[in-house]
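for the record, two folds in this file. i put them one after another cuz i was lazy. first one right below, seq on top, structure tokens after. the second one comes after a little note so u can tell where it starts
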Amino acid sequence: KERKAMSSLSKRKRRRLFLAFQSIANAAALISALHDKPVPPHTVLFGEIGLSGEIRQVSRADARLKEAEKLGFAQAWCVLPSLLKAAMELKSIASVQELLQRFNVG
């Protein structure tokens, strides 16, 4: 059903929709809403979606994690968590396909 809806959109509108969720947090919100599956509680997501569906690291990832910890988040989904230092649980997300799998829809 979602594919049919996407294919009926013009190329320009699809591009606008893609630009609207270039971050994995926005993409996760959209997936969550479409499939009625919530993001796990106390989870923060950050990363940038590339044109081929890969997830790229964002700048100042360590600072973002520290701030998320201060705000009470217990888990983060991000790229290359092995390179980051945080007290919270870090889970790797390398592609949009992996993001879909986290919601058991891909």
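(here's the note) second protein begins now
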Amino acid sequence: RTVVVTGKLDTLAVGCLRHVGLTVDAVHGFRIGPAKVEALVHERVSVYVGDTPQDMVAARDAGAVPVGVTTGPHGADELSAGGAEVVLRSLEEFAAEASARGWLRPS
């Protein structure tokens, strides 16, 4: 199951996903701070990829593995300091990392 939990408005998030041709199971937009944690818990997210230190904290608070990606405004050091278990340079690295760490479930 793939879920997007973002600070962007739902309509903007859905538009971005369509633009890049991605289909997801659920979108929780305009989620910041505790609201992001609530959505992660509600969806039973086990791994959360984010681009801010606050995303790393939200993942940890929700019991998910925090994965940082440096495609946003924060570098690897900031994401690690925020609690990232691993930091990727690009989302393109996620599948290989997830497979290597056993995060992917068989379909």
